Amino acid sequence: MSTTVEKISSNKVKLSFDIDAVTFDEAMGKAYLKVRGQVNIPGFRKGRAPRKLIENMYGEGVFYDDAFDMIFDEVYGSAVDENKIEIVDRPEIDIQQIGSGKNLQFTCEVYVVPEVTLGEYKGVSVKKQTTEVTDAQVEAKVEEERAKQASEVSVDDRPVKDGDTVDLDYAGSVDGVAFAGGTAEGQTLKIGSHTFIPGFEEQMVGMSIGEEKDLDVTFPESYHAEELAGKQAVFHVKVNAITETQLPELDDDFAKDISEFDTLDEYKADVRAKLEAQAAESDKNAFTNAVIEKVVENASVDIPEAMIERQIDSMMRDFEYRLRSQGLKLEDFMKYTGQDEKAFRASYRDQAEKSVKAHLVLTAIEKAEAIDATQEQIDEQIAQFAPQMGKSVEELKETLTDSDREYFKADAVRDNAIKFLCDNAKAE
């Protein structure tokens, strides 16, 4: 048997096989033993007909497929492993010669992980933003925490004002006729939230507890119920109760209640420090992404279609998993959004292609720069993953396979490659 490997493009190779006649004839004999039980020959019990008789009746080609498969399964995988070929799709097989007493000759063309032509990747120029945290952002964050501590207090000594929450009954009608969904009792409404029809909430301002009033409103032209869209309506409303949101005082006691700090100034300083840390991390991520994007853009690679399709498969599985966690099915989601599977997959294509290219380019840089990872860095990757598994680091290590360890090492190497690119980039 002889095997040759020929590179026919940056992402495709051709393997040529020449199997000696003796080996092929042995496979034909095994194929006969497999096929004879499926062939009916008059005068013979099923599975008892001689090989020659079957060949005379059906031709020896009746055994070719099984004989070929037996040989292919053995030689193709070995050739791929021996030549360290990283295949990404099924091979296209072309048989040149087959038959008893002849060498079996065939070729396989198969897409492989493509070669990457790296462009400039050391010293790329990228804009770097520095986000400053303003006093207004600090105050907004404090107010956000203050709102969480707010309480609703009943009001009975004044009429409704903007911002109040009102308990009310209402009955709506169009041209004096009640309509479906237009009547309710004990409904809660926050004035100023704009959750009701335009004009409804504004007309309730100034009403007192127990007061009843007719509100004249007009349904929007784009209202979801077509029979009401653009129609003028009257809502008879009654105010049952009023509550107002009461915020805690912004003082040292407030800071003590919601934090470990004794004063409001100390609490605000901590809020600022956390916002600055978040901004710095966001700026760092933006810079990192910009560097990677520039490096990937500078490289060229001919990506096999199968790699893109495989990435789309992975992205769709992730999306489907997220939907299921929300109690939805992918087919229902596509139905609600008016998409079919083909269109849905197409929407992922650009993102998938960019993801595959980025992975290939970064892998090529790792090889070009001989980037590796220390055991300490690998252990850090494992330590970050352990809590997700509900295990201690040592417990997780005991269960890891060689493949798992290679996975964590690859992650550590990738982190080092990205750090290498960012350290060498020129920040504008």
Write a structural description.
The protein is an alpha+beta fold and 428 residues long. It has 13 helices and 13 strands. The chain has helices at residues 21-35, 51-58, 64-82, 135-148, 200-204, 252-258, 264-298, 305-325, 330-336, 341-368, 375-389, 393-399, 402-424; strands at residues 2-9, 12-19, 92-97, 104-111, 116-117, 125-126, 151-155, 165-174, 177-190, 212-218, 232-246, 300-301, 426-427. The strands form four sheets. Strands 7, 8, 9, 10 and 11 form a five-stranded antiparallel beta sheet that branches. The protein has a four-stranded antiparallel beta sheet with strand order 1-2-4-3. The protein is elongated and about 105 Å long.
| SSE class | alpha+beta
Largest beta-sheet characterization? 5 strands, antiparallel
**Mass-distribution shape:** elongated
Oligomeric category: single chain
Count of distinct strands = 13
Write the layout of secondary structure elements.
Blueprint: E1 2-9, E2 12-19, H1 21-35, H2 51-58, H3 64-82, E3 92-97, E4 104-111, E5 116-117, E6 125-126, H4 135-148, E7 151-155, E8 165-174, E9 177-190, H5 200-204, E10 212-218, E11 232-246, H6 252-258, H7 264-298, E12 300-301, H8 305-325, H9 330-336, H10 341-368, H11 375-389, H12 393-399, H13 402-424, E13 426-427
Parallel strand pairs: 6-13
Antiparallel strand pairs: 1-2, 2-4, 3-4, 5-12, 7-11, 8-9, 8-11, 10-11
Helix pairs in contact: 1-3, 4-7, 6-7, 7-10, 7-13, 8-10, 10-13, 11-12, 11-13
